[in-house]
Structure prediction request, 377 residues.
Amino acid sequence: MIESKQVINLTKKLISVETTNGKSLAGAKILKQFFDDNGLKSTVNEYSPGEGNIIVKVGPIENGAFLLSGHIDTVPFGDLSKWIHHPLSAHEEQGYIWGRGSVDMKAGTAVLANLMVEASRVEDQFKKGLIFAGSGQEEVGLLGAKALVEDGIMLNVEQVLIAEPTSLNSIIYEKGILWLEVECFGVQSHGSRPELGKNAIEGLALILDDLKKLLPTLENEAVGRTSINFGMISGGSAPNVVPDYAKLTCDIRTTPGVSTQEIIRIFTNYFDEIQNGFTYKLNVLQSEESLETSSTVLANIILEETKMRVSKASSIKMTGTYFGTDGAIFIDKKNVPFVIYGPGSTELLHQTNEKVSIEEISIAYESIWQSILKYCT
Prediction:
């Protein structure tokens, strides 16, 4: 097996370069250099300026393939003054590596990249193929995965593993993603005479509680109900002007069993019928249905392999997740069995002072490797 320090070194290299929106190509280049150094041919596609995907293939892909998926990009750093160690420091201390992307998901991506090198050493034993897909812009709409699918990445794929942080649990379903934009149109007037206008910001405020109440109440034991987050609001031109326009952006996460299309229909009907003196326009920015695997064979293999390697096996479960992944694009309507599994605490997603356990990286590496062997050989 590859020495653990090689996985750690790659994790640190990936963390040390900024790959926020517009910059994932920098991470793809680090991965390409890693594969070049280990004798593997890789393909980098700069599908958008500054954004890159990378693909590596091992074994007879035409006989069926196992796709290993890891995204390269991260969310922004936030307030740098609140970080104990700089988000690009890749600081190692007391069994953890710190930095933006350490959990989500550069450690998982480094694990998969090293596994491709491991697989290349026994490629002659493979009866099926292995594909590594490093994707950009997962955090801003799964755009890298969409580019990969357009390029035919799923042509021979029979199994998918997405190495997102799961605290080493096997994830077999995820919430759907629905991003909506609501535009509100009012009437402009002088700030000293608000009664002569209609404040579009207030028009948005009037509907917030209603939108929450429109959500379906179907509940899932692991991920709860469908949720809505009012993530962005903008409007107005000056303090002394009643704004005639304002815009709200919502992030809705749908529980399995709740269709994003049904929510769009419900919201559309609401805005068609509402009469409160304002005009509204609903725009769909992104819509990905919830995802659930058609088979738990792969998830069970990962589950059992992990239980053999952790100190408290009872803590490892098969469950679902609140967050969305590139799986929503890769799987879509193809009904390909998948598992979401990787190192890192789900409690540290998008948090300041993100850090990943080196022990979890090692356990994930060994457990995924065994699943690769069982499928490919």
